Every structure is written in C-alpha cells, then in structure tokens.
Amino acid sequence: MFSEKFMSILSKTSTFSPNQPQNPRKIGPFTRSHSTDLCHAYNPTITNKWRNPAMRHVLIALLALALPCLIAFAQNDPKSVIKRQLGGAVNERNEQLDQATDNPKPPTETAKLPPGTPLPIKSGWITRTIKVPAASAEIKVRLYFSRPEIPTNAKPNLPALIVIQEWWGLNDDIQQRTREFAQHGFYALAVDLYDGQATDDPAKAKELHDKITDDGCLLRLKTGVDLLEEEVTNGVVDPKRIASIGWCMGGQQSLLLSLADQRIRATVIFYGGLVTDSEKLKNLQGPVLGVFGNNDKGPSPASVNAFEDGLKKAGVKDVTIYRYDGVGHAFASKAATKLGLYNEEKAKDAWAKTYAWLTEKLLKPS
Length: 366
Hints:
Elements: H1 2-13, E1 24-27, E2 30-33, H2 44-49, H3 53-75, H4 78-101, E3 121-132, E4 137-148, E5 158-164, H5 172-183, E6 187-191, H6 202-211, H7 214-233, E7 237-247, H8 249-260, E8 266-270, H9 278-281, E9 288-293, H10 301-314, E10 319-324, H11 344-363
Parallel strand pairs: 5-6, 5-7, 7-8, 8-9, 9-10
Antiparallel strand pairs: 1-2, 3-4, 4-6
Helix pairs in contact: 7-8
C-alpha cells in the first residue's frame, strides 16, 4: 500500500524523461544537466514540485531509513576494516615491546607526582661503533642508559651523569644505581669499560682491570659524552649540567674524564685514584665531590689531603670532601659485601649526602 502511494506521488512529481533534452550547464571543467539537478531554483517546474509536503515527507523518511545502512557500509568498507586491523596490530606490538622491556608508555603530559616519589623511567642498552685511530680499527662501545620518561615532543633539558663502573664491571649493581639516578631526575649513562664482561670474583676482576688502559677507557667514556651531546641537540640534556660519577677504578676514571673533556661540568669521586698536580687540576670545569674511607690505603688519607691541596692551588673553589672513620675502600659498594668491605650505615649516609650535593649542583636548571 505504501509503495503504491509513493510511486503515484513520484510519477506526478518528477518531470524527468529519457527523451528530454539535457541542457548541459558548465561548472568549471564539468557539465551537468538541469533536468537531473533537482536543487536549482531557476527551474520553476521542478522547484514547485518540491513544495508538495507529501513528497518532502516521503524523501525524509527514505533518508532516515537509508542513513544507518550508509554508516554500516562505511564502517565495513574493506579499506576501513584493513586499516583498523593494521592499527590494532601495531598497538598490540607496541604494548608487547613495552612489556618485554619493562618500560611504560611515554606520558602525553607531565605527570604530577607526590614529593619524593621516584620518577617513571625508561632504560635500555645502546651500542656505538667507533674508530680507534691509533690501531686503524673499530670497537663497539656498550652504553646502559636510564632517564625519566619524557612527554611527547618535550625538551626537558635534563641534568646528566656519566656513570662509571667499579672493577667488577658494569654489573647489576651499577645498572641499579643508574636507574636510581634516573628516578631522581637525571639522564644517567653507564659506559661499559669491559666490553660486556662482569664478574663477582676478585681474581677475575683484577684480570679484567689489568687489561684496560686509561686511553682505552677515555675513548669509551667520551663516546658516552658524545651521546649526551646528541641529546643536548634534541633538547633532552642541558649541556651545562653534565657530570661524571664513579667508584673505585671508576672514581679515578671520573676524575680523568673531567680533566680531559671540558663538557663535564661537575665531578664525583668515590675512593678512586687521585691526581694531585695543581696544573692538571686547573682543567676541571666545576664543583668536585669526593667520598673516602679513612682506613683506605688507595687512596690513603694522605693522598686525599694532597688532592685537596692541589685543588686549592688550582683555584677550584667549589670542593666538598667527606671522610668516613672506621671504613676503607669500597665501603659504599654492595658488590663488595662478600669481601667484608661494605658498610650499610656509612653507605646510606654517603648516598644521602651525594644526592643532596647532586640536587644542589645539578638539579637546579642552569
């Protein structure tokens, strides 16, 4: 019944005939017919037919019925379906990678955390291939990085630390310290001086230590500084707030790096070998923190005194030295527990003082 009435109204309303001349109208590069263009007001015959209320009601009803079908068709269009499937696959892959690396997704805006809450971080390994000019060869330098999560497209200008291992190698303890620095707001980068080897055996550690040279260490450490310099270009690292920190042999390498590379603006030494020549110490670019045990024989308290005197003669004014009674070498290193050298109480105090110093000297924007 409905269809019969509709066809009746439509046949009375339409003025189109297959034999009707098409009277084309030029519109840009295209042409179209007035007879099939039901929207042009200059055709009074067609326009008047649209004033029929019944015709308008029928067409509105047809549009209402057709709209859901059109939407469904668009959603199920093969191209749209494939695009959604590919997007879902990419998102699933990214989530799997995040879970595998234990790295959360980067935030889209800076999260507001309660004071003292460790920052969410991103950590991982980077390998750089560099040329050794003297040997006409190439070596691969392994770098372990950890930094706070950075909002998309942000340029936080973070303070940065070159983290330098003990003679055990870049072990789990050093990696944990690197992550802790990042949780405090630093871009921390640990440089592997043993090319992937680490041990908890003192004899093996001595063997690995004896194979390295100061020049070889410096080459690798400068590779780390080069990476931080790239992050300076990206707006991630503040070039005026790059420091080095190391323990034992790493303490010595921290000082040597600062003397050799003026991109290092602050130096932290935990009971490492010392330079006492004031002329050489003039190359230091910023504040110095030294942490030592008074029972240590290398460096001994006398060597620490000579180091302080050398810094004073060199004109290095911002110097902080902490000395701890009753402990010796490696007292702040958990890896030295099996040797009976680690002292938890003194280590906690030394770490608290170190973080306070780093906060004062580096966490404040330059």
